[in-house]
Design a protein that fits this description.
By secondary structure, this protein is mostly helical. Helices cover about 65% and strands about 0% of the residues.
Length: about 400
């Protein structure tokens, strides 16, 4: 069996990350959550129109507005823990000032990124500020505000990660025996653009605490692990510090800019995957090889179809022609992936037992948060949901 390359591992991290949020937004949002997202998506699209962005860059402008809105609605956890710990040395006014300054720096960075596509910086910031002011007044729950940009894209473009995978197969970066080449590639190329922008933001998120700061920019403060920390956890903390320091001091820096316009398709895709390999750390819940991904998408189609028609059988040995697995198999075929109904049925059983359980726990943990987590850094709710599901 050939060794899995770092680029293939990066691709599986991307697919896992987006698929998780796709299922979360499709199956685990409350009615109120969906109303919030409907309003946000509508307002962002209106802002894109008012900015006067060309159709060719409307997805780009929409993405950066969603990122800015996510940043603007986050950060309550810092003040919450400051209060909980009885830390009176840092008054709320000072914390507010620091958080606001960090957001201003980040908004300026986003405006620089979007300006490279011809958008006026001041116009972008003005519309972003209006969006933040509106939704700050609505007390958005953590189920909506946490990872808002990826969640909104999953609602608008639920097949992006599938099209992204198809695009990489099309241009020869990866190969899947279940994929059959199609001459029409517009959907896949547009999805590649959106997924690239999403991952650009995820890499920015990881290092934001260290280079987006209202204080000194050239310092990293490292705290030694407590004496009572278990050896396994201590080694993990040390490894994380080592990874962080090595990444920050690299010659190429830590701000990865996704630019689809300036290079060939293959060069752009390989640069994205290599950057993901270097700068994106993700704990997967959809385990397996590259070949299993068409089955994962088909299994999710079965779950979606089952919610629409719960009485229809999922699989039938005697006559499977009208089952949900057969319908899902035909839908996957229309998307250029050939997967048998039985394969989808078996993958669906695994989905019900494992991954759906993790995502449901994730949703429940989010609803219990008394604050909105900060936009930067790791999603500890995600990591906790995986641990909870394994122990439960």
């Amino acid at each position: 069996m050939p060794k899995v390359t770092s680029e293939q591992k990066a691709l599986m991290d991307i697919l896992d990350f987006i698929h998780f949020h796709n299922i979360f937004t499709s199956h685990f949002l409350s009615t109120d959550d969906k109303k919030y997202y409907d309003g946000i998506i509508s307002d962002v699209q209106e802002a894109v129109t008012n900015i006067g962005a060309r159709d060719s860059i409307s997805d780009i402008v929409s993405h950066y507005l969603l990122c800015g809105l996510e940043i603007g609605l986050s950060g309550d956890d810092i003040k919450y823990f400051n209060f909980l710990e009885g830390n009176h040395d840092i008054p709320d006014e000072m914390l507010d000032a620091v958080l606001e300054r960090k957001k201003e720096i980040t908004f300026a960075l986003l405006s620089c990124l979007v300006s490279e596509y011809g958008v006026d910086k001041k116009d972008f910031i003005r519309h972003l500020t209006e969006l933040i002011e509106k939704y700050n007044r609505l007390n958005i729950p953590a189920t909506v505000s946490l990872r808002l940009s990826i969640n909104a894209n999953s609602i608008i473009h639920p097949l992006d990660h599938l099209y992204f995978y198809r695009y990489l197969n099309k241009i020869g970066i990866t190969s899947c025996a279940k994929y059959r080449k199609n001459t029409n590639n517009n959907d896949s190329r547009n999805a590649f653009l959106r997924v690239g922008l999403i991952m650009e933001f995820e890499m920015l998120r990881y290092f934001a605490n260290y280079f987006i700061n209202p204080g000194r920019m050239d310092e990293i403060t490292i705290k030694l692990p407590a004496r009572d920390v278990p050896d396994v956890l201590r080694r993990q903390i040390i490894d994380d510090y080592k990874y962080l320091i090595e990444s920050v001091v690299r010659d190429e820096g830590v701000i990865y800019k996704f630019q689809i316009l300036n290079s060939s398709d293959e060069e752009t895709a390989m640069l994205l995957l290599r950057s993901i390999s270097d700068f994106f750390r993700h704990k997967r819940i959809f385990h397996g090889t590259m070949a299993k991904w068409p089955g994962s998408w088909g299994a999710f189609l079965i779950e979606s179809l089952r919610k629409e028609n719960p009485r229809r059988p999922i699989y039938c040995e005697s006559d499977n022609s009208t089952s949900l697995s057969e319908i899902a198999s035909k839908m996957m075929s229309s998307l250029d992936f050939k997967v048998s109904a039985r394969t989808l049925y078996l993958r669906y059983n695994s989905l019900k037992i494992k991954e759906l359980r993790v995502i449901e726990v994730y949703r429940n943990l989010l609803t219990q948060l008394p604050y909105t987590p900060s936009w930067d850094g790791e999603n500890y709710v995600y990591k906790r949901s995986i641990a909870t599901s394994k122990n439960g």
